[in-house]
Amino acid sequence: MLEPMSPQLPKFEDHAAQTVKTTTCYMCACRCGIKVTLEGEKIRFIQGNPDHPINKGVLCAKGNAGIMKQMSPAKLTQPLIRKKGSERGSGEFEPISWDDALDLLTERLRHIRATDPRKLAYFTGRDQMQALTGFWASQFGTINWSAHGGFCSVNMAAGGLYMIGQSFWEFGDPDWEHAKYFMMWGVAEDHASNPIKIGIEKLKRRGSKFVSINPVRTGYQAVADEWIGIKPGTDGLLALSFAHVLLKNDLFDKDFLLRYTNGPQLVICAPGQANDGLLLRADATDDKSDTQVWSLKSQSIQPWSDVHCEPALFGEYQTADGVTVKTAMTLLAERYLSEEYAPQNIADKIGVDADTIERLALEMAHVAFRETVEIDTPWTDWAGREHKSFIGRPVAMHAMRGVSAHSNGFQTCRAIHLVQVLLGAIDCPGGHLAKPPFPRHLPPPIKPATEMAPNTPLSGPPLGFPTAPEDLAIDANGDPLRIDKAYSWEAPIANHGLMHMVIKNAVNEDPYAIDTLMLFMANMAWNSSMNTAQTQDMLRQKGEDGEYKIPFIVTCDAFNSEMVQYSDLVLPDTTYLERFDTISLLDRPISEPHSACDSIRQPILTPDRDVRPWQEVMLEVGARLGFPALVKDDGQPKYQGYQDFIVNWEKSPGIGFLSGYRGEHGEKSLVGEPNQNQWQDYIDNGCFFEYEIPPHQRYYRFANKDYLQWAKSVGFNGHDGPIVMELYSETLQKFKLAGQGLYDGPQPVKAVDKQRMAEYFDPMPFWYLPLEQQRISSEEYPFFAVNQRPMFMYHSWDSQNAWLRQIMAQNYLYMNRKRAESLGFTDLQWVWVESHNGKIKVQLKLMEGVNSDTVWTWNAIAKQRGAWGLSDNAPESTLGFLMNHLISETLPTDPATGDHSENKSNSDPITGQAAWYDLRVKISHAVASDAKTDEQSLPQFEPLKPLPGQAPSPEVMRYSAGRQVNLKRSFKDTILRGFK
Amino acid sequence: MKLGLVIDLDTCVGCHACAVACKQWNTSGTSGPLSDYEPYGAEPSGVWFNRIRHYEVDDYPNNKTINAPMSCMHCEDAACVTVCPTGASYKRPEDGIVLIDQDKCMGCNYCSWACPYGARELDRESGTMKKCTLCVDRIYDENLPEAERQPVCVLTCPSHARFFGDFDDPDSEVSKQVRQRSGYSMMPEQGYQPTNKYLPPRQQPAVETHKPRQVSREEHSAEDKPMAQIQRWIAQQLKRQA
């Protein structure tokens, strides 16, 4: 574009001294492709890889700050063990060699595995290799494993997987290319960082409308065309009111509902009987047998699979046996047509006026049905019906944390999907597109493992998808088998576990005591736990015998987090630029809607510390313990390290962690025998693999015959039958029947469990007041309190990063200006914030863009003094604060009953998702004082001691790779042009 | 040539990617290192060429948030150059980039006081002033792929809110964006004729609403309205059948 380098310019870059390598970013969970330029052993530049399917060359603030991750003084440098005789949490560590550390760990684990494998609880935080850690736990034989999804977004994942066979983020994306209307629900800056930014720009360039539903107007909401400042936790009510308006005005896609959902399927209406609310089936004793519909053609009941019978979408009918049945859609219409969901009846509850609610629904209907998009590609559906084009309803949505982290989040996600389905806007042009391996059948056919035996791998993965009470992980008395009580009556569909309950349950020996808690990249002693201060106490708690209630805590992390200080054994990990890694389709995929993708990391730098990749450590320990998948018959390790394992281990024949470049010579995609050159093939392709789906398989994949057959052939789905969206969930109804005492199978015993099953396991989406708020007086605690991470730090778990903390090193409590003024609060004053669980002192900031009943803050800015390489007087510690102190991991006592014996976890009653957005607070003036010492946040914590080998953090940093070449102004120019 | 940037306030989400990319490239670039003071201490700060300001416009609930990245505007009549007592600051005649010769600068700060855009910062360690170079050490570098010969802030911007080019060329992307989107100068009243331009938020046309359904008299007076509506649908599907 520009003229060649002018002769006056010096040679700035010494390209001969530079090398460029590709790899995958890990500054957050977005997993963009990057190009890293090295000069000598220093990083010159990290940039987005223009060829990469995820980020297409762009990179966010976090990715651009990767150098400072590598430079962090908080990097762990060597394995550490708590000093003998010192107290846990006192920060007294001494170095231990890797050999001794692994001997110690192996012997401890060997004993557990040989006696009672559930005594190992292995929980992983913000990692992206759950397929490997889950495999490891399964081989060990403990069901006490999960990743961090339970306090992240399990509601979102489960809500979608049980209803439409996909969800948001990793599961599906808005069709940025064709959408004309985009609605974003709640905080979304985390999932996913760059693709959403890229997409929003595309929408705005095309003139699409962007509506944001969020109590706070920050982040992406800044550029929304319309901001709806809803009250937290009421999104479900808004979605169901949209459904009301659509139904009332006949604005729904009847053909879509008939063909692709269970809307026409017949539901048994037999109140008080064991089959009430179940689907009518060809054989009532076989819940795999055909569901039934009412044929308008033959005026009789016919199997749903008979596509020519012309099923009725609405109506009440009788079976030959005289049983009353209704179509699922009739039940849905009866519910949502009710005036209960009329805009004028919910407006006050959600803080949005009725006219706006109705208008938004009618806008979406207009775009869906009057601005239809059509792609002229013929395709065939599962039943063999030929279609000449893909019809698109160009209304797209995205929802994430804001919806997920409420105790009504699962049903709220379903309510949002219901609106999408009514509009016919699922996996069609302009709508919400699945990303391979999704869509999957409802739900994916994996059940949680429940049986354990010494020295024996589990029969399957610890996590799965229950479809009936029989699938729960409970004992003969109905008590939980898992330490986190996932898959118990407390959280039956806890697909991601309840990591937030592990420490409390283990300390209370409820349901039993454990021996070793092994944590990977999980800061449970600080911002990843509710109730931080008490969690720290629990980690230190001892029994009457003087032993710690959690006898042994192992932490693997690359950085000196608060959790490190509460560990007995610390195993230092590498950074993302120092190791091999896989971002696998078996794990949390990075696919795009029209291509199946996975990727790798390769080491860019050699570690300068005594650290090891956790993958290597796991495989070594697994081999030492004799995991059948990791040792040969003679007991020798089967694999020579991680790379060898990734290439040669197969989940099933031809399918492994990496889907690209399979087959002997790398000629096969997705399925094929191991290729010994696979890593190099990835590196040669920029460290990623992308398989493009042909045009006729790109939409309506839940019913697209060619896609479904292909998806089966590559192992994404177990069969090639249609994926039928479940507006009406028979799975939920089975749990409801169990709560009602009607289910022909396991039933809860405790009254509280019965009530929760009967009330919340509604087969159709509904809204209820979040559980904590049911027990908290809104008069006494008038504000909702929520938190979020800023875009430049979201999921950036090694904060504080020297560059990013210059953008923000202190968080404030933000309040609506007008509301604050009415209460006499002023900008930057110190206030007390109090919840039922605790009290914190914080600094207030006033703003316009927040719902007037809501206060909020930036999460996880606050750090314990001494952690993360920060100085003791860093504002993160002195001024910043965690809202976590205010949040309890158990529900408060019900004021109606006064009974606290059944205080359940503060979680969604269906999925166990941590409900950290349900908080309510009151705010009062902190005592005015001029004393400087008073200008600090409370509570404050003792500073953590420096770790052995930890270098002091620099006072001044002048990072530079390579040489600086100044561009001199010539003497002649100075003389001739002077001051120009 | 008149090189500069166009920044789209319609799509800038305020993510700071451009600012950090700038910091990253330039700390090892021609005027690096860009010092950081107390990087892990009480008052972390450092030298940056590009900073993002966030503003709220209008009152709740009609408020809007504007994110405004600010860096050197490469003014045509640059006050920072005029006030420089050493001749270190200059505007390159060939492309209009305003630069500081680090060998001539004595760090007197005059330029930073003269600049109304806050674009110049003192590096206390080197004792010199530093500022946006428009990545002069990239844009002419023929060893880089052609598409990457751009300032890193433009390359990295995830919401494509930044454009780089020659304002003297009426067919350049920057000239076209300014024409089509009514691009404007920040604080033109200061009289320094900034080269960089900003694109205002787009005014999206209102979306039409679907016409509400006309409810029949019978249905309107029905006692159980939902049931009446479902009965109508049942009748309709039978009719369609017939």
Give the helix tally of chain B. Answer: 8
The rounded distance between the terminal residues' Cα atoms of chain B is: 74 Å
Biggest beta sheet attributes of chain A: 7 strands, mixed
Structural class of chain A: alpha/beta
> Considering DSSP H and I runs of 4 or more, what fraction of the residues of chain A is helical?
10-25%
The average pLDDT of chain A is 95
Low-confidence stretches of chain B: none
Tally of separate domains of chain B: 2
Mind explaining what this structure looks like?
The complex is a heterodimer of chains A (980) and B (242). With 980 residues, chain A is of the alpha/beta class. Among the domains of chain A are: 15-70, ADC-like domains (N-terminal domain of TfIIb); 80-156 and 450-570, Rossmann fold, CATH 3.40.50; 581-696, no CATH class; 777-887, Barwin-like endoglucanases, CATH 2.40.40.20. A 7-stranded mixed β-sheet of chain A has the order 5-4-25-24-23-6-7, with helices on one face. In chain A, strand 6 (120-124), helix 4 and strand 7 (145-146) form a beta-alpha-beta unit. The mean pLDDT of chain A is 95. Chain B has 242 residues and is α+β, with helices and mostly antiparallel strands. Chain B has 2 domains: 3-199, Alpha-Beta Plaits; 216-242, no CATH class. A 3-stranded mixed β-sheet of chain B has the order 10-1-11. A two-stranded antiparallel ribbon of chain B has the order 2-3. The interface between A and B is large, with 123 and 108 residues.
Write the layout of secondary structure elements.
The complex is a heterodimer of chains A (980) and B (242).
Chain A: E1 18-24, E2 33-39, E3 42-48, H1 61-64, H2 66-70, E4 80-82, E5 93-95, H3 98-115, E6 120-124, H4 130-140, E7 145-146, H5 154-161, E8 172-174, E9 181-185, H6 193-206, E10 209-213, E11 226-228, H7 235-248, H8 254-260, E12 266-268, E13 292-295, E14 300-303, E15 316-318, E16 324-327, H9 328-336, H10 343-350, H11 354-370, E17 373-375, E18 379-380, E19 386-387, E20 390-392, E21 395-399, H12 401-404, H13 409-422, E22 432-434, H14 502-507, E23 516-520, H15 532-540, E24 552-557, E25 569-572, E26 581-583, E27 595-601, H16 614-624, H17 642-648, H18 678-684, E28 688-692, H19 705-713, H20 730-739, H21 751-760, H22 771-774, E29 783-788, H23 804-807, E30 813-816, H24 817-822, E31 830-834, E32 839-847, E33 854-858, H25 875-878, E34 920-925, E35 956-957, H26 971-977
Parallel strand pairs in A: 6-7, 6-23, 9-10, 9-21, 10-11, 23-24, 24-25, 29-33, 30-32
Antiparallel strand pairs in A: 1-2, 2-3, 4-5, 4-25, 8-22, 12-16, 13-14, 15-16, 17-20, 18-19, 26-27, 27-28, 29-34, 30-33, 31-32, 31-34
Helix pairs in contact in A: 4-16, 5-13, 7-11, 7-13, 10-11, 20-21
Chain B: E1 3-8, H1 17-27, E2 36-37, E3 45-46, E4 51-57, E5 64-70, H2 79-83, E6 89-91, E7 98-100, H3 110-114, E8 121-123, E9 128-130, H4 136-139, H5 152-156, E10 162-166, H6 173-181, E11 197-199, H7 217-221, H8 225-241
Parallel strand pairs in B: 1-11
Antiparallel strand pairs in B: 1-10, 2-3, 4-5, 6-7, 8-9
